[in-house]
Amino acid sequence: MKYADSGVNIDAATKALARSKKSIRSTWDDRVKNEMGAFGGLFQAAPGEPLLVASVDGVGTKVMIARMAGRYNTVGQDLVNHCVDDILVQGAEPLFFLDYFATSKLEDDVLPDIIEGFAIGCRENGAALLGGETAEMPGVYSAGEFDLAGTIVGRVREEDVIDGSRIAAGDKVWGLPSTGLHTNGYSLARAVLFDKAGYTVNDTPDELGGTSVGDALLAVHRSYLNPVRAMWAEFGRDAIRGLCHITGGGFYDNIPRVIPDGLCVNVDPTAWTPLPIFSLIGARGGVANSEMYRVFNMGIGLVVIAPAGIDLGRIEGAGAVLIGEVSAGDDKVKLPF
Amino acid sequence: MKYADSGVNIDAATKALARSKKSIRSTWDDRVKNEMGAFGGLFQAAPGEPLLVASVDGVGTKVMIARMAGRYNTVGQDLVNHCVDDILVQGAEPLFFLDYFATSKLEDDVLPDIIEGFAIGCRENGAALLGGETAEMPGVYSAGEFDLAGTIVGRVREEDVIDGSRIAAGDKVWGLPSTGLHTNGYSLARAVLFDKAGYTVNDTPDELGGTSVGDALLAVHRSYLNPVRAMWAEFGRDAIRGLCHITGGGFYDNIPRVIPDGLCVNVDPTAWTPLPIFSLIGARGGVANSEMYRVFNMGIGLVVIAPAGIDLGRIEGAGAVLIGEVSAGDDKVKLPF
Fold first, then answer.
1. Sequence spans of domains, chain A
2. Model pTM?
3. In angstroms, what separates the C-alpha of A99 from chain B's closest C-alpha?
4. Which of A95, A245, B41, B159 is the most exposed place for a label (fewest CB within 10 A)?
5. For the domain B172-334, what is the CATH superfamily, name and number?
6. CB nearest to B133's CB, from A56, A105, A187
7. How much is the ipTM here?
8. H/E run at residue B142
9. SS3 B136
10. Measured between alpha carbons, how far is B135 from A138 in angstroms, rounded to an integer?
11. Where are the alpha helices (DSSP H) in A139-275?
């Protein structure tokens, strides 16, 4: 199976956005400090001030897993952590978060659980849950379904922005473990696990070693804020030359977002063992590795690039694993499939 | 008809949010400067700094009118202008905006038009379109349907925050005209105009004086940024003691959000003529005035409170009309129905 078979067409979105670049740029002036396609937008309200860094996201069809499992207090955490990671990769720490929740029909017990999830995520990352909007839209949403979106705003001093420009050939590439799919690839996962393999969220296939399909799929997106703070504290801000959040588009689409022209990240996928949920999806769906690494994070949620000689494995609790190195080259990212 | 008959239950949302207040507050520290229920959240990253003001919103089922009319480049403007007005009422001017767009299936021509609408709105308000997220979620959204959410961030100097605390008995209450429903009450409007009265978006009932139902319903939410800037320039910031965006919940729910305890805004609804679209909805739906003024803005999108002697009618292009005054009282807002 391929991602497109599950009804999601990444190329369609990419094409539509390419047509819109000019529109978007027409709203920018010299206060906008990022290029198109960055994880977060960088905005400097006045010269010399710290930069505000903002990002918006959803959790995709992970919301449908939450509904199938009747567990509503984790997707909000997913979304906060996802957003935190999106601005962290540019060096920013979070200030506040705002949420949007919309559904076909408001049910008494769902919304408070959803909001509790946002609150847990915000507390854990030191962000204020500064605003929210709730909408009941019968007809727009399918019966019983809901969607979430969230926006985070953080900031970073101008001299601390991480934009990948200091990455050099010979740098080492580290991976920090993910907890599962995080917030991407759920349409393919659902097509394989539920439609093709016939599992329910309560099934416990041997491959998951006792964990249910629902638990594996709902594992909360990891915030990398504290591990990265620990790296900065231990080695200094300059030692972290590049950070990449492995989100929609997997290794192939995300790593090039932070790698300068003329360099290539060579990823050795034998350096770590993908989480069981990925092996299960690959096997049951007959999904090629080239597709798996394009859709999923495969067990690595954050890629960190640091000079040789910096041992990120020393950072307790981070779980950093050496997964490759940077070389001269035109491909930006290479995997052996 | 009542709003609840159209499938939207404002009370359910209010109750659920009341249950969540403690969760939300658990994420706040002394950097959060607003009370629960403010139009925008106020955040001061460090003492003495200007406050960041942020708000998130959607356009409700106005998205369904856009789809019925096949016109996709206005709802983005609606959302930007709505958000601009939500932070303007606390004295803030916009910095940047981020959008979220999700649909059942990405269609080639819809997304670029949607984004163009966001870009127009951002350019007109001097805000950067700093980020966006697009999601294709078959199953969550009904076939062909889509939803939008947007988040704005602006800022205001600490001494310029408008929180209503300077409002006093004897102050005058001004109304600035809306262009139509703006972004609220569309579920009731659709139930009355399409389901009950049987109109299509192309019909031109006599009451609308040549305008089609679709055009009247898609009229773009007005940004009050420039009129309010003109008031500040003409009379000084201190002369504007209260600003209230008439959004979901109409006069009854929004005016109390900015009125101090012990004061009451007495609105004289004969001071202006509601736009024809409201008269049409009221008549065709048999909707009581008490319900109309609770759901719709009735032709007044922004309420401005200023001391007696300040003639806001002098501000060219603002269209300010005197609609009432502030007196001592416990009701916060009074209308004659």
1. 31-160, 172-334
2. 0.96
3. 7
4. B159
5. PurM-like C-terminal domain (3.90.650.10)
6. A56
7. 0.95
8. none
9. strand
10. 19
11. 186-190, 213-218, 225-235, 250-254
